[in-house]
Amino acid sequence: LFFIFYLGEFFLNYKQKERRLESSKRLKNLLEKILVEKKNVLKIKSSQSNFLATFSHDLRQPMHALNLYVGSFEKTLLKTSMEKKDAVRSTESLRRLKQSINYMNDILSGLLEASRIEMGVSTVKVNSLYINKFCRDIIEQHRKNIEEINLKLNFNTNLTDKHILKTDQRLLERILRNLLSNAIKYTKKGGIRFRIKQKNNICKISIVDTGPGISKSIRKK
Q1: Element (H, E) at 130
Q2: For a disulfide at 208, which of 32, 110, 146, 193, Cβ 3.0-4.6 Å?
Q3: Across the chain, what does the average pLDDT equal?
Q4: Which secondary structure element, helix H or strand E, spans residue 115, and what is its range?
Q5: pLDDT per residue over 179-200, tens digit each?
Q6: Any residues with CB less than 8 A from the CB of 66 and at least 6 apart, and which?
Q7: Are 176 and 205 in contact (CB under 8 A)?
Q8: How many whole angstroms separate alpha carbon 94 and alpha carbon 184?
Q9: Which H or E element spans position 105?
Q10: Which strands sit side by side in the sheet containing 152-157, from one edge to the other?
Q11: pLDDT score recorded for residue 219
Q12: Quick check: 127 and 166 in contact, CB under 8 A?
């Protein structure tokens, strides 16, 4: 009986060992497949980032030329005499053209920045800045466009001008400029509110506008 029991225990141990080896083999194969898939995904991602970087960079030159042409056209328009009705129409067309070009510049800069971060060329650098002054400077860069389309701009903050925020200044500026440009582009009447609020050591920056918002047909359900 002892001999039979011993053989039975040996057989069970052998089976358990065999199952462990089989499980280990399947796990190893699975990990190898995951590693291969990861390499393929990273390769595709790198290719997409390179494409975005090249695409954004190549469009920089024609966009720069457009800015120069628009500036030259604006100077010519100021010197040209025309009827009031035509002058108003031409000024409005020029304003919309400049606004569209600025919007495209912001998009290209954002794409280029995103591709640099993904490629590891651009890294996040945290530094200190006076957040109220920082936001006011961004607003001033857009104030002329805001006034040209008769929009109201309201800046609210519950922080003092000595309040310091630690962040990546370049990336935060890019985000806020894009949001503000977007608000200006799509807000036809009413105004824009630029708000800074601190609560529980968290700084919340909001840009709220009276524009139509995202169309219901393309919102995520």
Answers
A1: strand 127-130
A2: 193
A3: 76
A4: helix 84-119
A5: 888 888 888 888 999 999 988 8
A6: 101
A7: yes
A8: 16
A9: helix 84-119
A10: 152-157, 191-199, 202-209
A11: 62
A12: yes
Is-contact 129 163, C-beta < 8 A?
A: no
At residue 199, what is the residue type?
K
> Of 76, 60, 67, which is closest to residue 99 (Cα–Cα)?
67
pLDDT band at residue 159 under the 50/70/90 scheme: very high
171, 191 Cβ separation under 8 angstroms: no
Q: Which two tokens stand for residue 201?
A: 């050591």
Give the model confidence (pLDDT) of 21-73 as tens digits: 777 777 777 777 777 776 666 565 555 556 566 666 666 677 777 777 777 77
What is the average pLDDT across 111-119? Answer: 66
CA 46/CA 33 separation, integer angstroms: 20
Residue identified by tokens 């497949």 is 33
Write down the pTM of the prediction.
0.54
Task: Evaluate whether 41 touches 82 at the Cβ level (below 8 Å).
Answer: no
Q: Which residues contact 34 (CB under 8 A, 6 or more apart)?
A: none
State the pairing for strand pair 127-130/164-167. Answer: antiparallel
Name which residue leads in pLDDT, 207 or 10.
207
> How far is Cα of residue 86 from the mean position of the Cα atoms in its chain?
39
